[in-house]
Amino acid sequence: MAERLIVIGGDAAGMSAASQARRRRGRNDLEIVAFERGHFTSYSACGIPYWIGGLVPERDQLIARAPQTFRDEYDIDVRLQHEVTAIDLGRREVVARDLAGGGEVRAGFDTLVYAVGATPRLPDWARSGVAGVFGVQTLDDGAALRDWLEAEPRPRRAVVVGGGYIGVEMAEALVQRGLDVTLVERGEQPMSTVDDDMAVLVAAAMRGVGIEIRTGVEVTGLTEQDGRVSAVVTDDGPLPADVVVLGLGVRPNTALAEAAGLPLGPSGGVQVDRRMRVLGVPGVWAAGDCVETLHRVSGLPVHVPLGTHANKQGRVAGINIGGGYATFPGVIGTAVTKVCELEVGRTGLRERDAHAAGFEFVSVVIESTNRAGYYPGARPMTVKLIAERPSGRLLGAQIVGWSEAAKRIDALAVALWNGMTVDDMTALDLGYAPPYAPVWDPVLVAARTAVDALAAHSR
Amino acid sequence: MAERLIVIGGDAAGMSAASQARRRRGRNDLEIVAFERGHFTSYSACGIPYWIGGLVPERDQLIARAPQTFRDEYDIDVRLQHEVTAIDLGRREVVARDLAGGGEVRAGFDTLVYAVGATPRLPDWARSGVAGVFGVQTLDDGAALRDWLEAEPRPRRAVVVGGGYIGVEMAEALVQRGLDVTLVERGEQPMSTVDDDMAVLVAAAMRGVGIEIRTGVEVTGLTEQDGRVSAVVTDDGPLPADVVVLGLGVRPNTALAEAAGLPLGPSGGVQVDRRMRVLGVPGVWAAGDCVETLHRVSGLPVHVPLGTHANKQGRVAGINIGGGYATFPGVIGTAVTKVCELEVGRTGLRERDAHAAGFEFVSVVIESTNRAGYYPGARPMTVKLIAERPSGRLLGAQIVGWSEAAKRIDALAVALWNGMTVDDMTALDLGYAPPYAPVWDPVLVAARTAVDALAAHSR
């Protein structure tokens, strides 16, 4: 009889694991069953803001592979609208509720992949059940929000709570749909994925497209009218709202894991080794937004929910389950975001992260351009580097620019990945041509400036 | 009495060296004299095609720092139109001809920087003195070409000889000016800076803007009418031409160096150590397009004339002359070019270079997109990787794409610089967001494909 692999969660991590396992093991060797609570498999959650905003016209464009594809081409028994409610490690079985048909399914496994993603952080005031309040974590969430925006009475005023990248992207999407948008952020700046001195550039671009930004403001409740949200209540007064979008970040979805006794780390995610095996639980694997991973710069465990990691981790788990060998060696916190006209990239540690991790460092910010200054279309680009002192090792980098800026972070990410010092980096052979860079690439200018800052510190 | 530094050549390398030396040593400690044959200092030769094509309207936009700036702000005695005709190492003096005023100058030096750049390769047929034939190595060359294009009778038909990146950029510039342009290339494809399988994409884009490409064709001579060029004669028949632009590459300008007995390496350039000291000649430094440098991947000496290297090398020489410490650790052959709508990037070794250097390798080519497939404006991007076998070490990479493609080569350049294997690269934490990349970045897809190719080879 074939072994059975059960996958809990049918998005990027789970379905990558399932399909990689299938590539290496045929159906007579391995039966694969995937339970997914929602209506979709393998979709781009990161694309939801663009669908809401209208840049991506059709929901199905966000779906990388439909359930039927997995059934037909990968021989994976995908069960949609099946919510796993318990994992019994002793009996090696899971219990799932059929949300559509009703009833309960029990299924035994030899191997289990836990890939249930993350859940939006919900403050108490958001749990009231008032209509018109939305997270945007899943495609089902996005569909509900879109329906609300298109139904009568048409929402006119939106409040986005939280200025992380999801909040910022959603604020822009809602402006694109013609709503009046206010973004409420508890901290000093929205776009807290970069340091405040860089985030201030982003805030200016957001205001430029008409987003009202309220910083240093805490949301304390909601008011409603006829069961629909009518305002967000803050410590600075009420903000009228016909729709509220939550961008307060997410936490690993570990309710099931915790109940089953899987180990959770300090970041709150499931603990795994670099082959994505759950620590100390033979035959059980985990991947994606529910796991904890190593930050290679700080050396600390972190929770970094991001589609690209989920895909890689799922693939690694699947290769290993299939009998191959693959590892996920951790992350360095690279992220890119488009905010209105602006491009934002970051990698490694922000100043606050570097402090928290105990590093001493210098940080420098330089202004340059994306192209040679004389070449048409040259736009400003700001580069920030954070380097350990006295070693000079790069700890983090941030880029904000108006064009062709975001993906420049990749060169810095690879430098960081390899433990380069800013001194080494001044010699890097980066691409130069007037349409693409000044003769001194902004990255090199930043590295030189960091070297000078280190020297000034050592005097 | 102050020591005297003489700099021969007033472009990027020479003036970087001079100004860095000045920053560290005052005028009472170091007198600095720079001889420049032409009319300009520190200009962007790489920008000449865009000035010719009209994208950059004014010549002076290409000048980073004018001679008067060096005189006023750096206390450097810049002598334009002074051609150094001899270096006497025994007497430690140079002889310069005053091209404007006439006469000869002799000047002693304690320290010498040789930074005379490169000269275009001129086949015999181009030496005839027929009017209307131009190289585009210096701003003076560019000015002469532009004058020719604007004088009566207006040239209508252009032939560009040589399909390296200068030839390709010039062909596009001449099309932008409204000329009928034919590019003649001896090899199988223009854009030989990348392998033929990538260059074919570039050739298609060039044809798309109306450039006629004649490959496998050798130029053998010129015909003239009233002293003006009238056609280029090839082994495949004549090509009518009112103007001919040479893009046959350049060689290090070493006539003076050779006469003075400076050591030349196998690539033809002046041999220097990593502090940019001429090997075995105390007090003499060299930098820029006239020197030979280490290719860090092949381990072989190469001649790579490029403004970004010239600036770095000049800076290194100047810091060392100034009493500091800096090194130039070599190049890895990174280059980016805009060709019509297309963006081209390369780093490391092409297949032919890898063969020549004695490597065994696999090469893979993958197709992806610059953005998530569903995001508006997603365009194709082709990535090629060359990896040593069996080690998997990256040897080279090439990217051709329609948008936001060229500078992606930097991430690969940094990976190559650090000696990464393609297996290591599959785990790289690169920036992901739908406007900037598919969830599997093209670089990661290429690395995975290369891993598979290596595995297939080892079976």
UniProtKB/TrEMBL annotation, chains A, B:
Protein name (Swiss-Prot/TrEMBL): Flavoprotein oxidoreductase
Cofactor or coenzyme needed: FAD
Domain Pyridine nucleotide-disulphide oxidoreductase dimerisation: 336-438
Pfam families documented for this protein: Pyr_redox_2 (PF07992), Pyr_redox_dim (PF02852)
Domain of life according to the entry: Bacteria
Family note: Belongs to the class-III pyridine nucleotide-disulfide oxidoreductase family.
Domain FAD/NAD(P)-binding: 4-298
InterPro entries registered for this protein in UniProt: FAD-bd_OxRdtase, FAD/NAD-bd_sf, FAD/NAD-binding_dom, FAD/NAD-linked_Rdtase_dimer_sf, Pyr_nucl-diS_OxRdtase_dimer
GO molecular function: oxidoreductase activity
Keyword terms: FAD, Flavoprotein, Oxidoreductase, Redox-active center
Organism lineage string: Bacteria, Bacillati, Actinomycetota, Actinomycetes, Micromonosporales
